[in-house]
Amino acid sequence: MHFRSFIPRFAPRFAQLRGLRNWMVQSRARTVSVIGLSSVVGLSTWASVRPRHSMLLHARSFDGEAAGSMGSANASNKGSKLPHISVYQYETCPFCSKFRAFLDYYGIEYEKVEVHPVFKREIWFSSYKKVPIMVAGETQVNDSSFMVSVVRTAMLLDGDINKSLEMYPELPEEAESERANKYNIMYGNTEDIDSRSEERRWRRWVDDKLIHVLAPNIYSTPRQSLQAFQYITEVSNFNTFERYLAKYIGAFTMYFIAKHLRKKYEIQSDVRQAIYGCVNVWMKGIGKKRMFLGGDKPNLADLAVYGVLSATEGLDTFDDVMKNTKALKWYQGVQYHVRNHTGAPPSSNN
C-alpha cells in the first residue's frame, strides 16, 4: 500500500529521467555521427582514398516514382539532345569538380544536388553511396571519369545515354580491376589515334597520381586543415551543430589521416614538392608548343586536371601551386574556356 502510494507521486520525476536519458542517448548518437562525419567529410569531399575496384559501373533505370521525385527528368538539355542531367555531389570533391568542368565546358545544363556527407538523404534511391552520381533522364551512372566518357560518347550519338552505355560492358561486381575502356570515347572513327591515346593516358594519370597528392597537401598542417574545413562546412548542407563539430573535429582528424595517406601512397615527406612535381610533369606533357594538351582548346585530360585543381581554389595549396609551377597561364586558359562554354555545340535555334 505504501509503495503503491509513492508511484503517482514520483511518476512525473521518472518520466523526466527517462526523457533525460533518451535525450542523452540521442545526443551521444548525434555526436558520434558528427565525429564520424569529420573523417567522412574530409575523405569523401577530397576522395583521395577511393579504391579502384569501387569505381565500377553502376547504371540502372529508375521507375516512375523515383524519376518523378527528381524534377524535370524528361526535359531536353539546352543546345543538345541529352536528357535532363542531375549531379549528386559534394561541392569541394575533386571528382565532382572534374565532372562539372566537363559539363560546363560543353555547355551542358545540369542540376546540382548537394549531398549530406553523413546521412546522404539526397541519394536514398541509390545503393551506390559515393559521389558524384549522375542521373541522366531515368538512368544512373557512377564514377566521374566513366560519366565523362559516357556523356561525351552520347553527345556523338544524338544524346542517347543508354546507347552510349551499351558500348561499355559492365564488369562483374566482384571484379577488382576497372573496366578496360572506361577512359575511351567511342568516336566511331580512327582519326587522331595518337592524340586520343595521349588523352586517355593523362585522364588515367589524374585518377592514379594527381588525386592522391591532394589530401596530404590540403591537410598538411593544423592551420591548413582548419582552413579547408572552414570552406567545406560553409558549402555543405550542415546545421549549426554539425558545422561546428565538423569544422574543428574534422580538421583535427584529417590532419592525422593525411599523414597516413602520405605513407600509404608513398608520397615524399615534403608534400608540397610532391604536388609541384605532379603539376610540372603535367606541364611537361603539354610541352612548349601547345597551349593545352588538346592543342588550341582543352581536351578531356585538360578538363580533368583543371577540375581537380579547381577544387583547391581558395586554399594555400592552390596558391602555392600556382606560384611555384608554370601552370598559371594554362589554368587560366582552361578556366576561360570552361566558364565561356566554348565546347558547346551550336544551338539548334541558330
Explain what you see.
The protein is mainly alpha-helical and 350 residues long. It folds into two domains: 52-185, 3-Layer(aba) Sandwich (Glutaredoxin), CATH 3.40.30.10; 210-339, Glutathione S-transferase Yfyf (Class Pi), Chain A, domain 2. Helices cover 54% and strands 5% of the residues. The protein is built from 13 helices and five strands. The protein has helices spanning 2-46, 64-68, 94-105, 144-155, 161-165, 193-210, 214-218, 222-235, 240-264, 271-286, 300-310, 316-324, 328-339, and strands at residues 60-61, 85-89, 111-114, 133-136, 139-142. A five-stranded mixed beta sheet has the order 1-5-4-2-3. Helix 1 packs across helix 9, helix 3 packs across helix 11 and helix 10 packs across helix 12. The protein is globular, with a radius of gyration of 24 Å. The termini are far apart.
Number of domains: 2
Specify the overall morphology: globular
Please report the total strand number as a whole number.
Answer: 5
Q: What is the level-2 CATH architecture name of the largest domain?
A: 3-Layer(aba) Sandwich
Number of helices: 13
Write out key terms for the chains shown:
350 residues; mainly alpha; Glutaredoxin; Glutathione S-transferase Yfyf (Class Pi), Chain A, domain 2; 2 domains; five-stranded mixed beta sheet; 13 helices; 5 strands; 54% helix
Topology:
Elements: H1 2-46, E1 60-61, H2 64-68, E2 85-89, H3 94-105, E3 111-114, E4 133-136, E5 139-142, H4 144-155, H5 161-165, H6 193-210, H7 214-218, H8 222-235, H9 240-264, H10 271-286, H11 300-310, H12 316-324, H13 328-339
Parallel strand pairs: 2-3
Antiparallel strand pairs: 1-5, 2-4, 4-5
